[in-house]
Amino acid sequence: MNKKEILPALLSGLLVPLAFPNMNLSIIAWICLVPLLVSTAETSPAKGFLLGMITGTLFHLGLIYWVTVSMITYGRLPFAVSLLVLFLFAFVLGIFIAVPVGLGCYIRKYLRLSLPITLPFLWTAAEYVKSWILTGFPWENLGYSQFRTLPVIQIADITGVYGITFLIVFTNGVLFSLASGCFRKQKIRWKEISALVLLLAVTLLYGQARLNRVDKENDPPVKISLVQPNIPQNVKWNPDYRKKTLQKLETLSLKSTDQKPDLIIWPESATPFFFQSAGPHKKMVETIVRQASTHLLFGSPSYEKIPGHTRLFNSAFLVTPDNRIQGKYNKIHLVPYGEYIPLKPLFPFLDKMVAGIGDFSSGNMIKNLEIPRSAFAVIICYEIIFPDLVRKFVRNGAGFIVNITNDAWFGRTSAPYQHLSMSALRAVENRRYVVRAANTGISAFIAPSGKIFKQTDIFTDDSITAMIHKRTDLTLYTRYGDLFALFCTAAALLFVFSAGRQKKRKKQH
């Protein structure tokens, strides 16, 4: 590889993170891959893979740099070691960009299909695989960069976030083709340009049509208060701090009762003790509930004793105004190295990055909780980034979605803002209100259009209240899931298989 190939790939790697929070230069997403396509315009599949790896690794270094905060502060790893882990993590994630680029070059070589045609399918398929392989890590896929571009993201109720990714990659490809036609005096691919214009027109027309009516509600409203206690992560699990934590929660909760909410929501692990066990701290929570005289949802660790073993869960409890436990949900999709250690017997020296009470077990039930006005989904922290998991709760009857989280361990980085951006797409995909209670922020109310219409500042003690509406309609995405991503995956496999057959034929001749 030479400088003319490497430098454009580096430029793409630097540009892509700028499209995401906290930079929020979403327009860059539509052009950020053009330099990468320039660098791979005439390269071999092997070179294409390496150039894609350069872009992918640099992109993820800029996107998830914040993992070093938790590793140094809570995992107690040396700075040099945390940087090494970050680089390895970014390198692994970079493979999901390198593979589609390398395969695109391979297909071009043997089928003579251009990258602008094949890369949208290959890239989308790679994002889909990344959402489930090795438990999955679909953090800030390319489509999330448009979470504030409301007319564009409305197609997510059909295609999921993957449809937005496809459109972005296709646009980059067509712009590259157009630039090649103008500056390299190559033949302009008018069919590709026409297809893009048609796709953009349909997307924007559909988006505007949905925006004109999606947030118009007829059902009776549900009033919800979100409490953000802003408990520092370094004292959250300190037994000496429990009383002060509950006093903060009490002050903020009672402040919101003037507005007579139907439900008050505290964040993930709001009670840093086992609420299910009797004791003075449980009595303090029950006193708050009686004073507030409304339903309370909050995160708390829980346990289940089985012969010879005790299983721990990251749970959410719903308590009625008369202090009955109305329901409980155990988190299904846990955070590797945050809530449990994968393959722990093989790596006994590894510890969790996030301070807590021990390794959690995974829940196994899609279960909605219910207040008099509506059933609702409880999605705990990291689970909100998995679209297929969230839609299953909605398909099971959830009238709105609650996300409780604790982003304190991210510190003052881009991560809390990135986490929020993905919540907005869950609202659009399922056409449900999403209410998000975060320990240190950002707590927010999100409309079914994806619009964030009320939110807190980060690292502040606060409580906010808003009206939402339950909904019962089911979108195509909620009903059928990732059909679009599966279609892209099937198309990608067909391209690769056909290229392989053509390669075999050439060898035989």
Describe this structure in words.
It is a single chain. The protein has 2 domains: 3-213 and 482-508, no CATH class; 221-471, 4-Layer Sandwich (Nitrilase/N-carbamoyl-D-aminoacid amidohydrolase). The protein is 45% helix and 15% strand. The chain is built from 16 helices and 12 strands. The strands form 2 sheets. A 6-stranded mixed beta sheet has the order 5-4-3-2-1-12. The longest helix has 33 residues, at 79-111. The model has no long low-confidence stretch (mean pLDDT 92).
User: Could you please say which CATH topology of the largest domain applies here?
Assistant: Nitrilase/N-carbamoyl-D-aminoacid amidohydrolase
Distance between the termini: 30 Å
Beta fraction: 5-15%
Rg over alpha carbons: 24 Å
Q: Reading side by side through the largest sheet, how are the strands ordered?
A: 5-4-3-2-1-12
Briefly characterize the structure.
This protein has 509 residues and is α/β, with parallel strands linked by helices.
List the defining traits of the structure above.
six-stranded mixed beta sheet, Nitrilase/N-carbamoyl-D-aminoacid amidohydrolase, 2 domains, 12 strands, single chain, globular, alpha/beta, 509 residues
Layout of SSEs?
Blueprint: H1 3-15, H2 34-39, H3 45-63, H4 67-73, H5 79-111, H6 115-130, H7 150-153, H8 156-159, H9 161-183, H10 190-211, E1 221-228, H11 242-256, E2 263-265, H12 280-292, E3 295-306, E4 309-319, E5 325-330, E6 369-371, E7 374-380, H13 387-395, E8 401-405, H14 415-430, E9 434-438, E10 444-446, E11 452-455, E12 462-469, H15 476-480, H16 483-508
Parallel strand pairs: 1-2, 2-3, 7-8, 8-9
Antiparallel strand pairs: 1-12, 3-4, 4-5, 6-7, 9-10, 10-11
